[in-house]
Amino acid sequence: MEKIVILTGAGISAESGISTFRDEGGLWAQHAIEDVATPEAFRRDPDLVHRFYNARRAQAAEVAPNAAHLALARLQERHRGEVVLVTQNVDALHEAAGSRAVLHMHGALAGALCARCEARWPAPMVMATRDACPICGAAATRPDIVWFGEMPYGMEAIWQHLEEADVFAAIGTSGNVYPAAAFAQHAGRAGAQTIELNLEASQNTRDFAETRLGRASVIVPEWVDAVLGN
Questions:
Q1: Residue 112 has what pLDDT?
Q2: Is there a binding annotation on residue 202?
Q3: CA-based angle 36:39:45, to the nearest 5?
Q4: Which annotated residues bind NAD(+) (predicted)?
Q5: How far is CA 145 from CA 57, 68, 97, 125, 215, in A?
Q6: Does the annotation flag 88 for ligand binding?
Q7: How far apart are CA 5 and CA 162, in angstroms?
Q8: Backbone angles phi, psi at 194, to 5 degrees
Q9: What is the reported pTM?
Q10: pLDDT given for residue 191 in this prediction
Q11: In Å, how far from its chain's centre is CA 57?
Q12: Which end of the chain is flanked by fewer CB atoms within 10 Å, N or C?
């Protein structure tokens, strides 16, 4: 049976109201990436980093899945083969839509991580530097987010899924960030059909056999309907 591997990026959550890196006036526009999304930033000013991610967590709590998230959950439920969902997003909109076993390669706003012992636990809505790790007691709490310069989570499993895929789809991704930007080439070399669904062509659009442009809430449900034969 056909195995489908899907990568989603910021573009799929933008219509739900989650800011992307490039949004003018959004949370990211108020801060330089190197000030809030690197290990060095956390060592330099952990309070600023926590304030930023507390704001992102609050923003994410106020939004709902859109038609694209719901369509992918429907695909997972109804497709006779395996559907593997990998996301670069740190929100929980896929889960809220009903998707299961989502691979969050860049971590999740819902998680907390001890920078000393690497223990993990559910994040409260507001986190602070002084919060003690429930395992080792160190005041070294950080968001369980993969920052620039850190290794994304689950890469061994993701590469394996890509090699086994019959279809690889990238939805709402910029094609700027590696290793995700290499997924289409990797899956294509292994024999997968590759398709990009995006608002505009990504930086690596040449790596895809097919590109469909438009709003995710429109083109993703259309694609899912076609896959399911509706």
A1: 97
A2: no
A3: 55
A4: 9-28, 88-91, 172-174, 198-200, 216
A5: 12, 24, 21, 15, 27
A6: yes
A7: 7
A8: -120, 135
A9: 0.93
A10: 97
A11: 14
A12: N
Residue 31 has pLDDT above 80, yes or no: no
pLDDT in tens, 112-148: 999 999 999 999 999 998 999 999 999 999 999 999 9
User: 190: which DSSP letter?
Assistant: T
Q: Any known ligand binding at 217?
A: no
Cα–Cα nearest to 125, from 140, 143, 99, 137: 143
Spatial strand order of the sheet with 120-122 comes to 120-122, 107-114, 141-145
42 appears as a binding residue in the annotation: no
On whether the CB atoms of residues 158 and 106 are closer than 8 A, the answer is no
Task: Return d(Cα 28, Cα 143) in angstroms, integer.
Answer: 16
- Position 28 scores a pLDDT of 52
> Over 60: is that where the pLDDT of 29 sits?
no
Integer Cα distance of 178 and 36 in angstroms: 19
Report the length, in residues, of the chain.
230
Domains in the chain (CATH in brackets) are: 1-18+65-106+151-230 (3.40.50.1220), 19-62+109-145 (3.30.1600.10)
Residue 106 annotated among the catalytic residues of the structure: yes
Evaluate whether 106 touches 142 at the Cβ level (below 8 Å). no
Residue 202 has pLDDT above 80, yes or no: yes
